[in-house]
Write a structure and sequence with these properties.
It is built from six helices and no strands. The mean pLDDT is 88.
Length: 187
């Protein structure tokens, strides 16, 4: 049924918006970048809502959705770093967390069992915080308010959630891997 593919289409739209957003950021058109980014972020919420509400979840969507999120967030943080608007360590932390999660997922899939990607509450909160930070940053930069008082708080929340969710994913999937693999002492 074609309706079942609507969430995947929204995810594809989000992926296609990434280069347009990056282009606007690099041209310092922060207002248009913020509008496009808002469309991408809303498509993320809508695709998840539709998939859950109508049972339109697909394996492809389960893999593409987090990939689209990571692509959007990492590309925007990287672009803002390139422009000198955020310190280099911030996108490096975002990318490092995502790299650890992806590497762990690949290792789990190949060494333990087929991976059924299921985001955690902390993981979702991290994505929301990163997305919110980026959107407000684009708005502030568009209004020439890059020194707004919320920036340090926003960075602090993003860092805290990156650390907490990264540790949570490592602990959670290490525990699952240990439980799924038989111990060496078993015959």
């Amino acid at each position: 049924m074609i309706w079942r593919q609507i969430p995947n289409g929204l995810t594809a739209l989000r992926i296609l918006l990434v280069p347009l957003i990056v282009l606007q950021l690099l041209q310092r058109d922060f207002a248009l970048a913020a509008v496009l980014f808002a469309v991408a972020a809303l498509s993320d919420g809508l695709d998840g809502l539709l998939a859950r509400r109508f049972g339109w979840q697909t394996r492809l969507g389960g893999l593409l959705d987090p990939l689209a999120d990571k692509l959007l967030v990492n590309a925007c943080f990287g672009s803002l770093w390139w422009l000198g608007e955020v310190p280099g360590w911030l996108p490096a932390l975002v990318l490092a967390r995502d790299a650890v999660i992806v590497a762990g997922a690949v290792a789990y899939h190949w060494r333990v069992a087929a991976l059924d990607a299921a985001p955690t509450l902390l993981g979702k909160a991290t994505t929301v915080a990163q997305t919110g930070f980026l959107w407000f940053a684009m708005i502030d930069l568009g209004l020439d308010r890059s020194s707004s008082p919320w920036w340090p708080w926003g960075v602090g929340v993003v860092i805290a959630l990156i650390a907490a969710s990264g540790i949570d994913y490592v602990v959670r999937w290490t525990r699952r891997a240990r439980e799924a693999r038989p111990s060496r002492s078993e015959p």
